[in-house]
Amino acid sequence: METTTFDWSCKYTWKQSAKNTAWCLLGCSIGDFGTILFFQLTKIPFPILAIMILAIINGLITSIILETIILMKQKINFKDSLKTAMGMSFISMLSMEIAMNLTDYIFTGGAILNWWIVPLMLIVGFVTPWPYNYWRLKKFGISCH
């Protein structure tokens, strides 16, 4: 039986997967931060856990929308763009969203945006799915962008 070793040292793939992860982070952050900011500014009484779940859902939705638009700009039809955006990076988006909101919860108690938590959430949100995105790109040659 032959064993093959996976190559984690490809600088080109790390760079490409970082680009893909950054696009995903942008999409997720729009919905996530927008939701948290809405509840923070309006002071609507809503349970923190519910706000964070809604932020995750909205982050997933905005990321799928952004990735679909990016794929359509690459001349891929809407149906295939949407299918690709939903299928290829859903694990990445979900891990990103959970990591970002867990970071917020651990450091602020949840559903709070301030000058120091946003960069921390973005860093954790980027680093969490990046190795998975590298692996997927290297192993299958699959990316969303």
Question: What is the assembly state of the chains in this entry?
Answer: single chain
- Helix and strand succession? HHHHHH
Distance between the termini: 36 Å
**Describe the biggest sheet?**
none
* Relative helix content: over 70%
How would you sum up this structure, described in words?
By secondary structure, the chain is mainly α. It has one domain. The chain contains six helices and no strands. The chain has helices at residues 11-42, 48-73, 78-88, 90-108, 117-127, 130-140. The longest helix is centred in the N-terminal third of the chain and has 32 residues, at 11-42. The mean pLDDT is 92.
Short synopsis of the structure:
This protein is mainly alpha-helical and 145 residues long. It is built from six helices and no strands.
Helix-strand blueprint:
Blueprint: H1 11-42, H2 48-73, H3 78-88, H4 90-108, H5 117-127, H6 130-140
Helix pairs in contact: 1-2, 1-4, 1-6, 2-3, 2-4, 4-5
Question: Which terms summarize this structure?
Answer:
145 residues; mainly alpha; 6 helices; 0% strand; globular
